[in-house]
Every structure is written in structure tokens, then in C-alpha cells.
Design brief:
This protein folds into 2 domains: 19-259, Type I PLP-dependent aspartate aminotransferase-like (Major domain) (Aspartate Aminotransferase, domain 2); 261-384, Aspartate Aminotransferase, domain 1, CATH 3.90.1150. Helices cover 42% and strands 14% of the residues. It has helices spanning 19-29, 41-61, 74-89, 104-117, 134-140, 163-173, 192-195, 244-259, 261-282, 309-318, 338-342, 347-350, 364-384, and strands at 7-8, 68-71, 95-98, 120-123, 145-149, 176-180, 199-203, 214-218, 287-288, 299-303, 321-322, 328-330, 333-335, 353-357. The protein is globular. Bound molecules: pyridoxal-5'-phosphate.
């Protein structure tokens, strides 16, 4: 039997490590295994590698190297940022403004601050494209607001938020602004001054570095209490022995992603737009979710009626296509995604979500294969296993 074509269209979940990134990392997994906190030469060489990586990241972010904090992942960066700033500012005020479409790394953290630390959280509604407006954020501000947290680009539907506008108004009011830029890292402008962010989270595995390494940008003089205490690494912002190879890999990957950004994005946009145009035309009832233009270059997301995401994903997997949905499955029940719900989509439509997220390794032939397979699979599911 001929093996099926394998098409990976789940780059929003994670990306393969770029061979150039792996090459840069290998010495630090082999002979250069020192602990950067050690005084001997082996340790000091590892320390120099970490500081070199910090300078590279700082260049992309247009910030000072000491404002770059290496962490264990995007979730950790979001947690450290939100809890760290909120706890440092709790005597000034206990009001946080965010959106209902944030990643759980943000939502669960602000919920915990509400439950255990007496904070109040306002969730500014988004429009049907999943976009929040800066005006609505401004209206939600109160004299006791100490923190705004709004993501750069949504992980489920790819919608890009007006981050620079929100940042500007936060700056005018003296409110700390945290931005979860995990999905934006490989694709969008990360200049922290142009974005007016005080805290920003990135995650290496979303842009061809390995899993288990992230960045938290912390603007100088941002009130901050570290919630990961210990040996005082990363200037006390994030204790814990450095993941030297991972840090070197992240910096290499970020530099590669940002250097070829415009060209890569143009290529991704062409493939994404073909998927959107053709699938919405060929599959009855298939609709684009998220913003039509303000969206990540490689992300096409859809909703369908009469098909459940999990059935569709399993059927696509059998055809060699790795994709994703916005829905999480818990205890056998399909729970519609909190993002699609906040966008006002019906239950019926939001349990049939499909996210195709493209990356550097995808080709136009992959797109043609998906265009051939998806309509056929949806039709078959509707016939034999319609969602109830
Ligand atoms: N924030 C967003 C928007 C994400 O998409 C993700 C991961 O999917 C995270 C945070 C968490 O990042 P990590 O997987 O590095 O913990």
C-alpha cells in the first residue's frame, strides 16, 4: 500500500526544530555542558553563550539585554509577568483588565489572583472576529486598574489585536501592560517600544526552537515580585539553572524568523488565502473564523455545522493531515472553545472548529492535498457520522 502524504498543518501548536537551530544548540548538549553560574571556564563559556543569546533577543525586541529574561515556556512567562506585576502593585490597586479570548496561561492566572489575592478582573468583550477595541479597553479602566493583559494574536483564530494602541493608552495612564506574544513571535513586529509593552511573553517552540524555553521581556523599572525564587538567576526574575542549549536555540530561531519575516509571511499568506477561499467555496456551510485581514499570515481557521471537530481531526489524521481545532475535549463531552463562545458563535457551530496553521515547511502541494481531502472527509462525516 502506498504511504499517504504527510502534511503538518498544526504550527500554532508547535513547530519542528530548524536544523540550523539544532546545530547551534548541539555543542551545549555535548562538550559545553557547563552551568553558567559556575566560576570555572566551562561554566563561563556557557554563561557567555547565554549572554550572547540575550543580546540577540534584545536586538529583535529593540530593548536592553538586561530586560530579557529567559524562562521555561510561554505559560511560565505569562504567569511570572501577571502575578509578578499584580503582586508588586497590589497596594496601589487590585483591578486587572483583560479579554475573554486570552490563552489559559493568562485566564487561569488572573482567576487565581481574583480568588486568592482580592483582585477584580474585567473581561473586555471582543467582536465577532475575536478582536478587542482599544476604546473598549479604555472604557474598562478604573482608578485602581494596575494591569492590562491583552494578547498579540489569538492562538485559535489568528486574530491580531490592536496592541500598540492599547499600549499607548496604558502608557498615558501609567498602567502596566502585559502582552502574550506567544503566537506572534515568529511572524509580527516585536519592537517593544513601538508596541508600548512593559511585559511580553514569547515561546521558542512556536518559531522552530525546541520546547521548554521561553522569554519574558520586562521593561526597566516595571514593578515586579518574582514568583519563582531560588538561586537568583536571571537577575532574580526567574531562578533556576539555565537551559543553555534551549536558550541558544531560541535566540538563533528568533533571529532567523525575524530576518526573513516579510518574505516568509508573503509566502504563508498566499497559501493561507487559497485555503480560505477554496474551502469556504467547496465545503457547504464552512465559514472563516477570526478576522478576515487582521490575522496571522499562516493561520486559517473555520467553523462547520453538523460535524464535530474530534471526528474531523481523526479522519484527517488517517489521511495524513495533522490539524487542530479550538475545542477541548473533557470527560468525553465536547466543550466549545471559550474563544469561539466569546465571539458569539453558536454551540452547534463552535463544536465543529478546524484550525489549519501553516509553517515554513508547508508547500503549495500540501495546500492542494488539503483542498482535495477536506471537502471529501467532511462530506463523508456528514453522511455517516453527523454531529448531534
Ligand atoms: N499563549 C498562547 C497565545 C499560546 O498559544 C500558548 C501555547 O499554545 C501559550 C501561551 C503557552 O505557551 P507554552 O506552550 O510555551 O507554555
Amino acid at each position: 500500500m502506498a504511504t499517504k502524504r504527510q502534511v503538518y498543518m498544526d504550527h500554532s501548536a508547535t513547530t519542528p526544530v530548524d536544523p540550523r537551530v539544532l546545530e547551534a544548540m548541539l555543542p551545549y548538549l555535548r562538550e559545553e555542558f557547563g552551568n553558567p553560574s559556575s566560576l570555572h571556564r566551562l561554566g563561563q563559556r556557557a554563561s557567555r553563550a547565554v549572554e550572547g543569546a540575550r543580546r540577540k533577543v534584545a536586538e529583535v525586541l529593540n530593548c536592553a539585554p538586561r530586560e530579557v529574561v529567559f524562562t521555561g515556556c510561554g505559560t511560565e512567562s505569562d504567569n511570572l509577568a501577571i502575578r509578578g506585576a499584580a503582586l508588586a502593585l497590589r497596594h496601589k490597586g487590585r483591578h486587572i483588565v483583560t479579554t475573554p479570548v486570552e490563552h489559559k496561561a493568562v485566564l487561569k492566572t488572573v482567576q487565581q489572583l481574583e480568588q486568592h489575592w482580592g483582585f477584580e478582573v474585567t473581561y473586555v468583550p471582543v467582536d465577532r472576529y475575536g478582536r478587542v477595541s482599544a476604546e473598549d479597553v479604555e472604557r474598562a479602566l478604573r482608578p485602581d486598574t494596575v494591569l492590562i493583559s491583552v494578547m498579540y494574536a489569538n492562538n485559535e483564530v489568528g486574530t491580531i489585536m490592536p496592541v500598540a494602541e492599547i499600549g499607548r493608552l496604558a502608557r498615558e495612564r501609567g498602567i502596566i501592560f502585559h502582552c502574550d506574544a506567544v503566537q506572534a513571535g515568529g511572524y509580527l513586529n516585536l519592537d517593544v517600544d513601538e508596541l508600548h509593552v512593559d511585559l511580553m511573553a514569547l515561546s521558542g517552540h512556536k518559531f522552530h526552537a525546541p520546547k521548554g524555553v521561553g522569554v519574558l521581556y520586562v521593561r526597566r523599572n516595571t514593578p515586579f515580585v518574582s514568583t519563582l525564587t531560588g538561586g537568583g538567576q536571571e537577575a532574580g526574575y526567574r531562578s533556576g539553572t539555565h537551559n543553555v542549549a534551549g536558550i541558544v536555540g531560541l535566540a538563533t530561531a528568533l533571529e532567523l524568523a525575524q530576518t526573513g519575516r516579510d518574505e516568509k509571511n508573503a509566502r504563508l499568506r498566499t497559501m493561507r488565502d487559497r485555503l480560505i477561499a477554496e474551502l469556504t467555496a467547496r465545503v457547504p456551510g464552512m465559514e472563516l473564523s477570526g478576522h478576515p485581514t487582521e490575522r496571522l499570515p499562516g493561520l486559517a481557521s473555520f467553523t462547520l455545522e453538523d460535524v464535530s471537530s474530534d471526528g474531523l481531526l481523526l479522519a484527517l489524521d488517517l489521511e495524513g493531515i495533522a490539524a487542530s481545532s479550538g475545542s477541548a475535549c473533557s470527560s468525553g463531552e465536547i466543550t466549545p472553545s471559550h474563544v469561539l463562545k466569546a465571539m458569539g458563535l453558536s454551540h452547534r457551530r463552535s463544536i465543529g472548529a478546524l484550525r489549519l496553521s501553516l509553517g515554513d515547511d508547508n508547500t503549495p502541494e500540501d495546500v492542494e492535498y488539503a483542498l482535495e481531502v477536506i471537502p471529501r472527509v467532511v462530506e463523508r462525516l456528514r453522511q455517516y457520522a453527523p454531529a448531534s
